[in-house]
Design brief:
8% of the residues lie in helices and 56% in strands. It contains 1 helix and 25 strands. The strands form 3 sheets. A 12-stranded mixed β-sheet has the order 2-5-9-4-11-13-15-17-19-21-23-25, with no helix packed on it. Strands 6-7-3-10-12-14-16-18-20-22-24 form an 11-stranded mixed β-sheet, with no helix packed on it. A hairpin with a 2-residue loop joins strand 6 and strand 7. The termini are far apart.
């Protein structure tokens, strides 16, 4: 019995080792000794964060970038600025294990945020008439606190999660791949596209008019005072509040449209 157990385990170790060698990946384990360093970049309005960073991004009059990592990880940190974009990630091609990766960023104005690779960010206090773009993917999370902007475009995919409080003009929000979105506040007109078993709760986000497309067993709650238009398919569910005027609403494939 002992031999029967040991042989498969040994084979598994050999396979894992072979895969790591074949792909050229190195396993980098955090030292546990976390160090904070400050980086000097300015004049950026766009931020890209990847590789499981945990970030705090807030509005301030000046630029500040602090990165906290295990002290043996700074050699693998990839931080750069190109044009108006600040990029923070880790060197690709490695496996990072038991690491701590944190960023604190302040800037006067945020126009675009991209999170990927299971990264998380808390975005606080921006108040601007500029348009705002967000792309949240790869099981990442964004917590938006009291953000005001012009028109907004949000792309949320890959089991990601976005929640928060916003004041927007017109908004386009696309949600896919079993992602979740919960927003409160106000917006004018919205185009909402939800697919792939995703779930959107906008019951506390008051809208003037909305155009909603749901598919693939997705769900949405929406609060509209003006006109509501929608197209549902694939066993999706749309619930609405606000006593809207119903424009064009179509459903197929066991989908449901109903007041809440």
């Amino acid at each position: 019995m002992f031999v029967k157990i040991i042989l498969p385990c040994f084979a598994l170790v050999v396979i894992i080792g072979t895969l790591i060698t074949a792909t050229g990946c190195a396993v980098i384990t955090g030292s546990g000794n976390v160090v904070t360093r400050e980086f000097v970049y300015g004049d950026f309005t766009r931020i890209e964060i990847g590789y499981a960073f945990d970030a705090e991004i807030s509005q301030a009059d000046s630029y500040l970038i602090k990165i906290s990592l295990d002290d043996n990880l700074f050699d693998y940190l990839d931080i750069s600025k190109r044009d108006d974009t600040l990029r923070i990630t880790m060197e690709p091609g490695n496996i990072y294990s038991k690491t701590q990766q944190r960023a604190v960023i302040t800037l006067p104005d945020l126009e675009r945020l991209e999170l990927s690779g299971a990264s998380k960010a808390v975005i606080t206090g921006f108040d601007s008439s500029h348009n705002l773009e967000m792309e949240i993917s790869g099981a990442s999370e964004a917590d938006i606190i009291d953000v005001t902007s012009g028109n907004a475009y949000m792309e949320i995919s890959g089991a990601s999660n976005v929640e928060g409080s916003v004041t927007l003009k017109d908004a386009v929000i696309n949600v896919s791949g079993a992602s979740f979105v919960t927003l409160e506040g106000t917006a004018e007109d919205m185009s909402l596209d939800v697919s792939g078993a995703s779930d959107v709760d906008l019951s506390d986000l008051t809208l003037d008019n909305a155009w909603v497309t749901l598919s693939g067993a997705s769900q949405a709650e929406i609060n509209v005072s003006g006109q509501l238009n929608g197209d549902l398919s694939g066993a999706s569910i749309l619930e609405y509040l606000g006593n809207p005027t119903i424009g064009s609403l179509t459903s197929s494939g066991a989908s449901v449209i109903r007041p809440k």
